[in-house]
């Protein structure tokens, strides 16, 4: 009898929405991840040729509609790459169809939506995670490691700034209020997530001011502050009007860690700067593909039943803070409470 280990079946992925970003980033990441296969892509009815074109390089089946892909027994895990307004509905439907789900950010545009997803995941015993791919880049782990080592003392202020520019009249879903557009639910998610991640809690209250470029129907830029209690705070800004920025800074009682390109693409090194009273030093974190690291982590979580690195509690918190920023901006920057009632970590 052979002692060779039994091969683990591959996790077979299907993608809802044949977007160009998915075709250039996510699909190659799935195809390149050991133990994963890209088996299906779906477009809306009448647009199957888009799904066929996106899936062709990977030998994936094209489905004439999202429900058709969910009924495909050759799909174990679904990537939801749809406009923000469709994330909750299609994530819940995929979970009900027995699929595991990696869903684009934001998982939902309110906490209620995350709660619906949580209930569906519990009922189906399937794995679900919000695709905050930047968290998987080793430079974020290095920043967390430096912080935990006491390199900058106790964390007091987090500053995060995320931006990229979108042309008016481009038909981009980010400018369409009916599809969940706006800077807050697009690039803002990342800026919001950074302080929540490093303080490991929700702020007690937030305040925000939004602005719109001329003729825009959605918020296109924002500046917000967050109060985490005990003298700890965050300042975030984000925009779909400005040039690219994906930067954050962790300031502690003894120094500051700066991460200059938190979205580092697969060919780019990460660069961290640590400033203390002893001087300034730079660290390079070698280039990594955060999309692929995210896919590999998700597949491992499905196989082993272990927890995911972006747990549902984090997604609920991000959605609640996003809702609170929207409420504050509507009230001309008035403070809005959004704590989760849990005690602040000591
Ligand atoms: N993590 C990242 O790096 C990253 C980067 C970009 C985007 N995203 C996220 O990915 C999601 C999609 O963004 P995207 O930039 O890929 O958008 P996109 O290029 O406009 O694609 C959205 C897809 O959704 C489908 N869709 C369904 N209903 C639609 C409607 N009414 N109008 C337009 N498209 C519709 C379309 O696919 P079919 O026609 O094939 O059905 C379309 O290709 C968003 O949630 C966004 O936040 C994440």
Question: What does it look like?
Answer:
The chain is α/β, with parallel strands linked by helices. The protein folds into two domains: 11-132, Rossmann fold (3-Layer(aba) Sandwich), CATH 3.40.50; 134-337, Dihydrodipicolinate Reductase, domain 2. The chain is built from nine helices and 15 strands. It has helices at residues 20-32, 48-55, 66-70, 87-96, 111-124, 138-148, 188-199, 290-304, 312-330, and strands at residues 11-16, 36-42, 61-63, 77-80, 100-103, 128-130, 155-163, 205-211, 221-229, 232-239, 245-252, 255-259, 270-276, 279-285, 336-337. The chain has a nine-stranded mixed β-sheet with strand order 14-13-12-11-7-10-9-8-15. A six-stranded parallel β-sheet has the order 3-2-1-4-5-6, sandwiched between helices. Strand 4, helix 4 and strand 5 form a beta-alpha-beta unit. It is globular. The model has no long low-confidence stretch (mean pLDDT 95). The structure holds NADP nicotinamide-adenine-dinucleotide phosphate. Residues 17-22, 43-44, 47, 50-51, 81-84, 104-105, 131, 133, 173, 179, 186 line the site of NADP nicotinamide-adenine-dinucleotide phosphate.
